[in-house]
Amino acid sequence: MHNYSISNKSKKLTLIALLFAGWFCDYLDRMVMSLGVTGIAKDFHLAPSEVGIVLSSFFVGYAFMQIPGGWLADKFGSKKLIVISIVMWSLFTVLTGLAWSLVSLLIIRFLFGIGQGSYPASAAKSIAENIPHKERGKAQGIAMSANPIGLAIAPLVSASIMATFGWRPLFIVMGVIGIILTTLFIYFHPSSKVRNKGNKVTNDEVGPSVKDVLCNIDIWKLAILDFGLSCASWGFSSWLPSYLMNVRHVDLVQTGIYASLPFVAAALTQMVSGWWLDKFLAGHEKIAMVAAGVLSVIFFYLMFNTDSLQLSILYQILASIPLYFNLTLIWVFVVKIFPTKTVGTASGIMNFGGNLAGVFSPMIMGFLISASGGSYISAFWFLIIAMIISIIATLALNKSSISNKGINGIEEA
């Protein structure tokens, strides 16, 4: 695949808007489960440990598809994989609303994860295929700002629909929205093009092979970094509604509002993170990420050590801002330092680490809560340990690996 960067500004904006919508729907569909599972747990009589397994079953399928999904995006182009991914996850979102037992729910959520698993690498591949190198940081930051917006809106949407209709219609409505989104990608996303023999070959094409990416130690360091950050982000977002309802004794509607606030702040952070990186942080990425990680640790600790509901919510917001700043930066690194032909594979490897965290984090927190008799303190210490892992992985990165020159010093076209 060749990098045919879009020169028309309106087409660039259309592409970024599509990817933004895709990420938004991706996170909305997966995160309605965090509040939806409160109704499911009552109907299916699930213990907290079983709820944790349900939340983690999605990530088993999701993690499984990261590297294959990235390779498929590199081989067949981003558009095909994006369309297939959205259709599949939307179908299994609808089927979640039709689940009849714990076992059926586990199978459906696993297959839902398989469906969503190709989207992250395909979206990163789309930016590498269509956006000039110098603009990729900003484009990736804007597109991925949809993630926390989805996290913010999911509790609000979930609470309103569940309060009126119950949890089953919630998932059916979300699945139908995804099918509608698919048609927009079919008609408006640029088709991936294969380079003609007469076209000039650029460094963006002749960069490292897939084997080189797999053998590069820094992509695996990024995977560990993503693992730590995602343990914190998925553990936090998965259990925050339950924490507010069970520990802080907030009602369903207020939980929807309060649980959305950290992710509103995170969305604003992600919108500007890529721009900050491009404009101000070049050469200082490690320092910025370590500082952000330390701030998250401090605010997570304060969050569960205050008796005040208002202060706890404030600390949740303040912990989310540096956490999502770092989550944006690692994705910007991938689209900037790896050539277009291997961005899908590199993204898949890195996100595999992040989604192993998604497999284990909600489940581990569920077991910790059950073992503690309903206390969330040990579960929140787990979030802090995860952030410390991410800080250590950041310190282990080679400075040259996160420069704008690309992997192995190859300058991109």
From TrEMBL:
Membrane-related topology note: Multi-pass membrane protein
Localisation per UniProt entry: Cell membrane
Keywords: Membrane, Transmembrane, Transmembrane helix, Transport
Keyword tRNA-binding: no
Domain Major facilitator superfamily (MFS) profile: from-to ranges: 15-402
PROSITE patterns: MFS (PS50850)
UniProt cross-references to Gene3D superfamilies, sorted A to Z: MFS general substrate transporter like domains
Keyword hit for Transport: yes
GO CC terms in record: plasma membrane
Highest taxon listed in the record's lineage: Bacteria
Database matches in CDD domains: MFS_ExuT_GudP_like
Primary residence: membrane
Bilayer-crossing regions: 51-69, 81-100, 171-188, 257-275, 287-304, 316-338, 350-370, 376-397
Classification via PANTHER family: FI19708P1-RELATED, SOLUTE CARRIER FAMILY 17
Protein name: Sugar phosphate permease
Originating organism: Scopulibacillus darangshiensis
Organism lineage string: Bacteria, Bacillati, Bacillota, Bacilli, Bacillales
